[in-house]
Amino acid sequence: MPDANESRAEIEPSPGNRAPTFGERTVRLWFNPSGNREVAKIKEYTAALIDLCDAMRGPRSATESGRERSRLASLAVTAYEEAAMWAVKAATTGYQ
Question: Which of 7, 23, 33, 91 could cross-link 38 (Cys pair, CB 3.0–4.6 Å)?
Fold first, then answer.
C-alpha cells in the first residue's frame, strides 16, 4: 500500500505499474488533489478492506450459502465505500 506521504502522482496508476486492485479503483486511490494525508490513509485502508471483501465473494457459486456469502460481501463493500466518502468529507471539512 502506498504511504500517506506520497504525492498523487506517485500513486496514480501509470503504464508499466501493476494494475490497481478492485478496492483501489473503487475508492479512486490516486485521486487526492489536496494531497491531504488523512484522505490518503482513509482511501488506503478502505481499499484494503474492499479487496478483502472482494476476495470473499470468490467465484460465482450455485449453492445458496455461496450466494449468501457473495451478497454479504457485496453489502460490506458498499458500506465501506459509503463510510469512506463520509470520512473523506470529515477530513476535508474545515472548521471556522
Answer: 91
